[in-house]
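Support request, please re-run this one:
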Amino acid sequence: MTRETEQKTEITPSAAAAVNRLRAAIEGGQHWYPAILEAAGYWPEGDESFDGRVYRYLIAGEAFDLLLLAERVSGAVPDLIPEAEQVDLLFNSQPPMDLTAAEMRRLMGPTRYQQHLNYFYGVTVEEALILATQDEIRKEERSLVIKGYDTIDESFLRLYENSRPELLKLFRRERGERPNRSLKLSEMREFTYWLFKFRLRRTDKARVASDTKKALARLKRFPGKKADFGLGALLGV
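Re-run finished. Output below.
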């Protein structure tokens, strides 16, 4: 995002048009949830600074944060969405209806849906893989196989063969930023997606497949509030 973009505080004309289109669709009788999925397909902004908050929907030009977009546009039409259903979607990853992956792809369009998949595997699944690895480390400690490891540091070493501070320096270097700058909360998903790409470049296909299976298994057991709301369709549950 450019410095100029970060300074924007008002909604852009293209984003305003997209919100108006969403409102018209719901007022015209379309259920709000499919309407939001369609809005993801025609949403014009890759990032946005609106109402005092920075929204980064598109990471690295290829991974789209669908849940963040749902939060943004549902907040623009609160009078048209039942509050309880909105809360279930945004905080519990529970959509008001079940849609298949094919239905989501049709609503969002093939390009945006692929970007959604990129985000799912590159951020949601990568986070689950890190947590699953930390679970394994804690289990080993309880079994007295190992003792005294820092769980977070050890999980990064096992997955990426580098410590988290070293990886953060590489991340900053690739982006042309100061290596010692702390990681903002808004950058966490970007860093996670970078870790995903970093791991793919350095890991053989068999290990990648095994790690993905492990992460998906953890998501099924503990979907939690951070899982994307296409989880059921993507995991076949």
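The radius of gyration is 19 Å. The CA atoms of residues 126 and 196 lie 6 Å apart.
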